[in-house]
Write a structure and sequence with these properties.
alpha+beta
C-alpha cells in the first residue's frame, strides 16, 4: 500500500495535467476522454487517501488503548515488582526518587502475619498491624489535616414519664485530636543487591521497612494509652502480680458497658503468669494454654511497656493514618561505598477516646 504522501504527490501531478487540458479553448473528444480518465484516477486516489487516513486514526487509537492497558497491568503487578522496577529506574535517574506504596497500608487481613518472604512477591500484613487489628483497635485511614474524635465515658439514657423531659445522658465530652506525626525507618542496600532480578529480594526489603513502621505505631499505642488514660492507672500489684489483682482490674472499670475486653502485657509477665496458679497450688495457671486470663483473651507482646498490664476495650483506641507509605531512595550519600539508602516515611497518630474503658496495672513485677 502506497504512503499517503506518495498518493498526494501523484494526485497533484494528475490535477496539473487536467488543468493544462482544460485551458484549451476547444476540447476534442480525445482531450475530453483524457480529462475524464484523469478525473477518475483523482477520485480513486481521494478514496485511497481517505482510507489510509482513517487507518492511521484507528492505529493511534489502538496504540493509546494498548498503552492504557499496559499501565493498568503494571499497576496490577505485585507491589514488590513495582518497587523493584521503580528502584532501578530511580537509581538510574529515569524515575522520581519517591515511591508511593499505598496498598501496603490498606490490608484488612488481620490473620496474615509475615513469617517468611523467601519465595514471595506479596507484601504481607506486618505483625504490628495484624496485632492491633486482632485487638479491635479502631483505624481511621486517609485522613487530611487534624482529626477530632469526641471522647466520653459512656452514653446513657432512661425512661421518662409521659410528657416528661429527657434527662442528661451524663456524657462528659472531651475531644481527642489526632495530628499527623512522622514515622520513619531506613536501610541500606548494595549495588550488588540492586543487580538481582528476583522480586523476593525486593519483597524482603520492603517488608522490613513496613514491619519497622508498624512496630513503631504499635509501641506508640501503649505509650499514648498510658498518657490518655493516666487516671486509670490503679494501685494493683505492687509486688508479684496475683490473680486477685487481675480480677480487681476488671472490677475497677465498674459498670461501664465495654465491648470485647482483653489483657495485654509483656512476654516476661506472660511467662510468669503461665507458671503461677490461680489460687493455691491445686488450681491451674493464671494464664492458660488457650491464652485466656479471667475469661478474656490475653496477649504478651514486646510493645507493652515493662511491668505493665493493660485491660479494657481496645476498640476505644484510635490509629490515624495520613496517606500511604512513601519510599524515598538516596543513591548519593553512600555512593563511594556502593550503597543505596532507602527510607520509608508514614504519617500516623494514636490515642484513646474513652479512658474509662481501661484499667492499667502500673507495677506488674514478677519478683
Amino acid at each position: 500500500m502506497k504512503k499517503i504522501i506518495d498518493l498526494k504527490t501523484e494526485r497533484s501531478e494528475i490535477i496539473a495535467k487536467m488543468e493544462v487540458i482544460a485551458e484549451n479553448e476547444s476540447l476534442t473528444e480525445e482531450m475530453r476522454s483524457e480529462w475524464d480518465g484523469h478525473d477518475s484516477r483523482v477520485k480513486a486516489i481521494d478514496e485511497e487517501i481517505a482510507l489510509l487516513e482513517r487507518q492511521e486514526e484507528l492505529n493511534k487509537t489502538n496504540v493509546k488503548k494498548m498503552e492504557e492497558t499496559t499501565e493498568i497491568r503494571k499497576d496490577e503487578q505485585p507491589l514488590a515488582i513495582q518497587f523493584r522496577d521503580w528502584l532501578k529506574d530511580a537509581v538510574d535517574g529515569k524515575a522520581p526518587l519517591s515511591f508511593r506504596a499505598d496498598p501496603i497500608l490498606t490490608s484488612t487481613q488481620a490473620g496474615i502475619i509475615n513469617k517468611t518472604v523467601a519465595n514471595s512477591v506479596d507484601i504481607l500484613t506486618s505483625p504490628g498491624e495484624a496485632f492491633l487489628r486482632q485487638l479491635g483497635v479502631t483505624f481511621y485511614p486517609g485522613l487530611v489535616g487534624n482529626f477530632v474524635i469526641p471522647a466520653m465515658a459512656e452514653d446513657t439514657a432512661e425512661f421518662v414519664s409521659e410528657a416528661g423531659d429527657a434527662s442528661t445522658s451524663s456524657m462528659s465530652h472531651d475531644a481527642l485530636t489526632l495530628a499527623a506525626r512522622r514515622v520513619s525507618a531506613f536501610q541500606g542496600i548494595t549495588r550488588e543487591t540492586l543487580a538481582q532480578t528476583n522480586p523476593a529480594i525486593y519483597t524482603s526489603i520492603l517488608q522490613n521497612l513496613v514491619n519497622g513502621v508498624w512496630k513503631a505505631v504499635t509501641n506508640d499505642v501503649f505509650d499514648t494509652l498510658e498518657t490518655d488514660a493516666a487516671t486509670q492507672i490503679g494501685a494493683f500489684g505492687g509486688g508479684p502480680v496475683t490473680y486477685a489483682d487481675l480480677v480487681q482490674m476488671e472490677a475497677s472499670i465498674g459498670g461501664l458497658n465495654i465491648g470485647a475486653g482483653a489483657y495485654v502485657t509483656t512476654p516476661s509477665v506472660k511467662a510468669y503468669l503461665k507458671k503461677t496458679a490461680v489460687l493455691g497450688t491445686d488450681n491451674g495457671p493464671i494464664w492458660g494454654n488457650d491464652n485466656m486470663v479471667n475469661g478474656y483473651p490475653a496477649y504478651g507482646v514486646p510493645a507493652a511497656n515493662t511491668d505493665k498490664i493493660y485491660f479494657g476495650d481496645f476498640s476505644r483506641v484510635a490509629v490515624g493514618q495520613w496517606g500511604g507509605l512513601e519510599i524515598i531512595v538516596d543513591p548519593y550519600t553512600k555512593a563511594k561505598q556502593g550503597e543505596i539508602i532507602i527510607t520509608a516515611v508514614g504519617l500516623f497518630d494514636t490515642g484513646c477516646f474513652n479512658k474509662r474503658a481501661f484499667a492499667i496495672m502500673a507495677d506488674a513485677s514478677v519478683v
